[in-house]
Amino acid sequence: MKILIVDDDPVTRSMLKHTLNAHGYLTAEASDGADALAKMAAETFPIVISDWNMPNMNGLELCEQIRKHDSEGYIYTILLTSNNAMEDRVKGLRAGADDFIGKPFNKDELLERMAAGERVLNLETREALIFALAKLAESRDTDTGLHLERVQRYARFLTQELVGDPAFADEIDEEFIQLVYQTSPLHDIGKVGIPDSVLLHPGKLSKDQFKLMQSHTVIGADCLKGAIAKSPKAKFLHMAHDIARFHHEKFDGSGYPDGLVGEKIPLAARIVAIADVYDALRSRRIYKPAFSHERSCEIICGDAGSHFDPRLVAAFERVHEQFATIAERFSEPSELPGSAEPKELEMVH
């Protein structure tokens, strides 16, 4: 595993390099955030250790750029800092940092933080299996394109934006953010139980067909319940269950399958609901063309308090540009924006 050390102080870089090399890690060095991004464009670094205060591009800005540009594999970022106040840590988490090390660093703490980072990265194997399972379920519907790839990234950005909000302080931490990213692709896993005649129907569904389509939430949740029975302590299975069953619930209680209201809907499901609807709006389907980013934002903001948690919609408004970037990066030629008649909006909801 090769670690990128980012610090404008050559002495600190040398000390970090010596410690990590002595314990079997390969290292590379960068003098600031801009230099780090250039090196990351040419080489893969699973873990980045960066100083907070640097010229040209500081550690916070580097974290933001790493999360903004995304990558094929998760990059675990550790900020090396003397900023130990809680508000500074919150800023770091919001920017996309995974962990912090005090400055000057302690060798034993550094190595333990590295071990923690490796444990998180090892979860990518589990994540790959989860994603493969979700892709298998989605493969029957050839009209969904890169839907899963987009939804998990929308969900992660939205969750990161909620870090530091007192309303969610008891629920959202680094683990929650990673679990949302890992499990959100399973939101429609229950569609494996929906007949092709309904799933691939080229038009508006009849009342009976729509009722059958709605059952995908219960089918998916029941499937995951079986896995939970085998591994009851696996947090990712519990979150996957909540997302699969409740991502079509609405904040005002008019959703399905259980008609839950407000905060009775699990937070992860409320987050994925926005991600899923935004992607449905932006994507072409058999029954509708793709909507523009601006029109999609109007619809989501207009549904604050009815379909969506208004606090999550407020967070969405702050990061909507990142949503647009993801939509463009993971788009396909058939998913270009068009126009839609008002009657077609009903099908998205």
Question: What does this entry look like structurally?
Answer:
By secondary structure, this protein is of the alpha/beta class. It folds into two domains: 2-118, Response regulator (Rossmann fold), CATH 3.40.50; 139-348, Hypothetical protein af1432, CATH 1.10.3210. Helices cover 55% and strands 7% of the residues. It has 15 helices and five strands. The protein has helices spanning 10-22, 33-42, 59-69, 86-95, 107-138, 147-161, 174-183, 196-199, 207-214, 216-230, 235-246, 267-282, 293-302, 310-329, 342-348, and strands at 2-6, 26-30, 47-51, 76-81, 99-102. Strands 2-1-3-4-5 form a five-stranded parallel beta sheet, sandwiched between helices. Strand 3 (47-51), helix 3 and strand 4 (76-81) form a beta-alpha-beta unit. Helix 6 crosses helix 14 (310-329) and helix 13 (293-302) packs antiparallel against helix 14. The radius of gyration is 21 Å and the shape is elongated. The protein starts with a strand and ends with a helix. The model is unreliable at 338-347 (pLDDT under 50).
Secondary structure layout:
Blueprint lengths: L1 E5 L3 H13 L3 E5 L2 H10 L4 E5 L7 H11 L6 E6 L4 H10 L3 E4 L4 H32 L8 H15 L12 H10 L12 H4 L7 H8 L1 H15 L4 H12 L20 H16 L10 H10 L7 H20 L12 H7 L1
